[in-house]
């Protein structure tokens, strides 16, 4: 009975939240709108990573590369070419997914740690090229002042755009997780050997998951540029990749919305802590250690686990 | 239907399977027996593709399957359950079997249809035939060991196999569960026209349902034949039965 | 920025020596990383931070005594300081995680890297530091038509020394053999009555100590800055990956490939020299995804 109430509440809750967030801009200082925008972008990035990590069980250690590729693609197209702007918006995720396909194709032939290390290697090569190719990518400085279409000229309109795209992406991700593709992916996470034995081509399925995940990472990259109007090589740096990993862990990587929570907490903390000290990295490290020792299922995972034990106890009382 | 000829497999210095031979005819129930370490599970792994043989032939329905990866062997019609319970621990009983059925229906990669509504009829019918329908919403972790072993079998059935390979299907079960499982196997073989290949330690079971028995010892095939032949064979008695059953 | 060579054999040889010396520093660090990876089966992300601490500690120690004696003192003490830090981290926190899945161990080393990185900022501040080479090793030697910095030759010598010492340790000492056994089968080692936890502690400390040594050795050759840890750990990871996980000779091979391709790359494409080693890594991995040499496990 508990279950049905919660399930009925969730859609209502999320719709209400969405409407509230939509109405915020006129009511709330600019700085908060900017932070929320940053949270949305980071959430999408974390959600895209969690598709392959939490639900797919793969060691995607350098996810930031695809985010950066998406961001740089739109930045380059909008600053260096005179093609219509919508091309940049579409090309970002597509190129990110193509790079994901390429890197993924090599990585899925390996397992676990090798998968991760190879991805770090290939991703670092791309970072090194972007970092050094000053003439093309702006090197260490990055690219600034990326022009945007008229309807995105203000912070508020960018906010709406990002929020709507985020909502749409989350709906798609939810559908994907609930589809046969998603349940097979989770089965592969839990027992790849068994999946092979029931006729699933595990490698091909994992590769498809990587392509989907990197596509959404590319969308996140495009949204970042909409918010910041600039790109820099840090977007492709391995430290960011591990930070997103931490966000998924923090939120709870076996839950659907855990990464969103993780991203929100991390971004909010970083901005909040940044006001008092410049040692944010130290704080992040301490948080991570606390997580590892005390909350390995993440915040949402902890609550879901507690909730499940309660419902199990209720059910057991009902059926002795 | 299945023919294993002179198959050899060694791990570095250890010769796990040494010229094993096996023949399984359509519709038969065949048992492989042998002491611990005789190479039975290794042989099964070679047949279903988890391991590559060093030498020898494995032929299924006139097709050499020795080089195929496990998922293709499954698609050819061979299903398998594992000795150590090998299920999907975070999914429900229903979802466990559903994964196999979806794979069989080639629907594993559908992106935007809810899995909840797909393959429901087939999955439920399998669960019903093994007696797990009432537990279909339980998470696997909460099942008893015996039920998990039956779930093993149910998952393998999801692929509508023609040859079902069961690796110690009653290991760790209580006597009542064992009896029920054996009856289940007999019924499945009959109603679904399955060919069954299994290995077991419990001799009572083996001799009660197997139509043909292959005896392995230290990786070699000693003999394959009807139960009576095997029981009376001197070599087998010396190596394994030791004069007493069970 | 042409591709046509504008250099002669003298420049080639000179750059080769530069590359070799750089490779030796990388080797010292990566041997440590490989050792930890081999025994604990975890890539130690904090390795770069420990290297950085080694460099900064060398700066502090070398300032404590006048003249060259400071450097030699630092060369001795900096690795010990790093070893001490790693011992504390291991005994206090790390060892409680040995039963957990490897991903957790990896994330712990990342947390450690984050914390140590900021600790360096707190203790030494954000400015560039520099360390002078000791008088004995200043200047160059002329031979074969070009001049070779003495310090580079010193690095090559030290690198070979470390390689030999490690080989002796792993193959000839009891501790080394136990470490090798623990890498392959930790349960078996435990059953033999050996305290596996201490074996891990020892391996971790030795590996980290090597990172500190690498930092001390590199100190006179570069500006010591924050961010050294980030660049180094990526390079170290790549080297260990192409060498074969846990294989120390592989670490040597990988370091040589990395160091030499970068230094030779400077001759051909100065602006993109940094890309050459990464490209070399990618090529090696495409041909042999599990590394050049066999992984320890």
Fold and architecture overview:
The complex is a heterotrimer of chains A (320), B (246) and C (297). Chain A contains 14 helices and two strands. By secondary structure, chain A is mainly alpha-helical. In chain A, α2 packs across α12 (258-276), α3 crosses α10 (202-228) and α7 packs antiparallel against α10 (202-228). Chain A is globular. Chain B is α/β, with parallel strands linked by helices. Chain B has nine helices and ten strands. The two termini of chain B are 30 Å apart. In chain B, 44% of the residues are buried. Chain C starts with 8 loop residues before the first helix and ends in a 10-residue tail after the last helix. Classes of the chains: A mainly alpha (320), B alpha/beta (246), C mainly alpha (297). Chain A binds chain C through residues 59, 106, 109-110, 113-114, 117-118, 120-122, 124-125, 128-129, 131-134, 237-239, 242, 245-246, 249, 278-279, 281-282, 284-286, 288-289, 292-293, 296, and chain C through 41, 43, 45, 93, 96-97, 100, 102-104, 107-108, 110-115, 117-119, 121-122, 230, 234, 237-238, 240-242, 245, 271-272, 274-275, 278-279, 281-282, 285-286, 289-290.
Helices and strands in order, then pairings?
The complex is a heterotrimer of chains A (320), B (246) and C (297).
Chain A: H1 2-23, H2 30-52, H3 64-80, H4 85-107, H5 112-132, H6 134-137, E1 143-144, H7 155-178, H8 180-190, H9 192-197, H10 202-228, E2 230-231, H11 238-251, H12 258-276, H13 280-294, H14 298-318
Helix pairs in contact in A: 2-7, 2-10, 2-11, 2-12, 3-4, 3-10, 4-5, 4-10, 7-8, 7-10, 8-10, 11-12, 11-14
Chain B: E1 2-11, E2 14-24, E3 29-33, H1 40-48, E4 55-60, E5 63-64, H2 70-76, E6 78-81, H3 93-104, H4 120-130, H5 145-157, E7 163-167, H6 175-192, E8 195-199, H7 203-209, E9 212-217, E10 220-225, H8 227-232, H9 234-241
Helix pairs in contact in B: 3-4, 3-5
Chain C: H1 9-40, H2 47-64, H3 69-92, H4 102-124, E1 140-143, E2 146-149, H5 150-172, H6 174-184, H7 186-191, H8 196-218, H9 228-243, H10 248-268, H11 275-287
Antiparallel strand pairs in C: 1-2
């Amino acid at each position: 009975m508990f279950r049905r109430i919660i399930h009925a509440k969730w859609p209502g809750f999320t719709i209400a939240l969405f409407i509230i967030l939509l109405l915020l801009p006129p009511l709330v200082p600019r700085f908060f709108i900017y932070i929320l925008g940053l949270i949305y972008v980071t959430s999408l990035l974390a959600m895209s990573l969690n598709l392959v990590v939490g639900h797919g069980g793969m060691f995607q250690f350098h996810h930031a590369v695809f985010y950066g590729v998406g961001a740089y693609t739109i930045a380059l197209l909008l600053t260096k070419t005179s093609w219509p702007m919508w091309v940049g918006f579409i090309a970002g995720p597509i190129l990110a997914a193509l790079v994901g396909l390429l890197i993924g194709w090599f990585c899925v032939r390996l397992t676990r740690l090798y998968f991760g290390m190879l991805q770090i290697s290939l991703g670092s090569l791309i970072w090194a090229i972007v970092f050094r190719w000053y003439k093309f990518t702006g090197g260490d400085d990055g690219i600034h002042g990326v022009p945007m279409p008229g309807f995105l000229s203000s912070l508020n309109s960018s906010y709406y755009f990002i929020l709507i795209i985020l909502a749409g992406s989350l709906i798609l991700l939810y559908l994907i997780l609930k589809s046969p593709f998603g349940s097979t992916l989770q089965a592969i996470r839990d027992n790849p050997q068994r999946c092979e034995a029931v006729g699933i081509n595990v490698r091909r399925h994992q590769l498809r998951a990587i392509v989907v995940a990197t596509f959404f990472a590319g969308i996140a990259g495009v949204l970042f540029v909409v918010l910041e109007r600039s790109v820099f090589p840090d977007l492709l740096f391995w430290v960011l990749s591990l930070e997103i990993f931490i966000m998924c862990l923090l939120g709870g990587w076996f839950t659907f919305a855990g990464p969103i929570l993780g991203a929100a907490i991390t971004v909010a903390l970083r901005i909040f802590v940044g006001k008092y000290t410049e040692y944010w990295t130290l704080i992040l490290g301490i948080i991570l250690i606390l997580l590892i020792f005390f909350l390995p299922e993440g915040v949402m995972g902890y609550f879901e686990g507690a909730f499940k034990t309660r419902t199990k106890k209720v059910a057991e009382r009902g059926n002795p | 239907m299945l023919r294993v000829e002179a198959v050899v497999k060694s791990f570095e210095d250890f010769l796990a399977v040494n010229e094993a031979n096996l023949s399984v005819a359509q519709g038969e129930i065949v048992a492989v027996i042998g002491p611990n370490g005789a190479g039975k599970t290794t042989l099964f792994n070679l047949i279903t593709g988890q391991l590559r043989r060093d030498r020898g032939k494995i032929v299924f329905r006139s097709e050499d399957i020795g080089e195929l990866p496990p998922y293709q062997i499954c698609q050819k019609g061979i299903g398998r359950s594992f000795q150590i319970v090998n299920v999907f621990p975070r999914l429900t009983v229903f979802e466990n079997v559903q994964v196999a059925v979806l794979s069989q229906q080639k629907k594993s990669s559908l992106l935007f249809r809810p899995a909840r509504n797909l393959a429901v009829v087939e999955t439920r019918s399998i669960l019903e035939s093994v007696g797990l329908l009432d537990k279909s919403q339980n998470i696997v972790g909460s099942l008893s060991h015996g039920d998990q072993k039956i779930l093993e079998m149910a998952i393998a059935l999801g692929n509508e196999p023609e040859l079902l390979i069961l690796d110690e299907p009653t290991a760790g079960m209580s006597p009542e569960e064992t009896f029920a499982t054996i009856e289940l196997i007999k019924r499945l073989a009959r109603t679904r026209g399955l060919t069954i290949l299994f290995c077991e330690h419990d001799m009572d079971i083996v001799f009660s349902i197997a139509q043909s028995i292959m005896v392995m010892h230290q990786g070699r095939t000693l003999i394959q034949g009807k139960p009576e032949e095997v029981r009376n064979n001197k070599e087998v008695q010396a190596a394994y039965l030791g004069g007493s059953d069970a | 920025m042409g591709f046509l060579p504008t250099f002669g054999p003298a420049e080639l040889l000179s750059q080769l020596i530069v590359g070799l010396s750089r490779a030796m520093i990388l080797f010292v660090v990566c041997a440590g990383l490989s050792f930890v990876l081999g025994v604990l089966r975890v890539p130690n992300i904090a390795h770069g931070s420990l290297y950085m601490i080694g460099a900064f500690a060398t700066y502090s120690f070398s300032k404590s005594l006048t003249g060259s004696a400071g450097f030699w003192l630092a060369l001795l003490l900096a690795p010990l300081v790093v070893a001490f830090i790693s011992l504390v981290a291991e005994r206090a926190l790390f060892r409680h995680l040995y039963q957990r899945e490897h991903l957790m161990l990896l994330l712990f080393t990342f947390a450690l890297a984050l914390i140590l990185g900021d600790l360096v900022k707190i203790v030494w501040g954000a400015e560039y530091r520099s360390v002078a080479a000791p008088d004995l090793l200043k200047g160059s030697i002329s031979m074969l038509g070009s001049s070779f910095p003495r310090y580079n030759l010193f690095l090559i010598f030290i690198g070979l020394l470390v390689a030999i010492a490690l080989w002796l340790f792993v193959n000839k000492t009891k501790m080394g053999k136990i470490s090798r056994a623990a890498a392959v089968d930790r349960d078996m080692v435990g059953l033999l009555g050996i305290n596996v936890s201490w074996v891990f502690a020892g391996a971790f400390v030795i590996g980290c100590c090597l990172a500190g040594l690498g930092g001390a050795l590199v100190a006179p050759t570069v500006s010591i800055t924050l961010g050294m840890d980030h660049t180094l750990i990526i390079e170290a990871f790549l080297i260990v990956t192409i060498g074969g996980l846990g294989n120390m000779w592989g670490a040597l091979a990988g370091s040589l490939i990395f160091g030499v391709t970068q230094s030779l790359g400077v001759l051909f494409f100065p602006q993109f020299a940094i890309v050459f080693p990464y490209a070399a890594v990618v090529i090696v991995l495409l041909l042999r995804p599990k590394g050049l040499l066999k992984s320890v496990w």
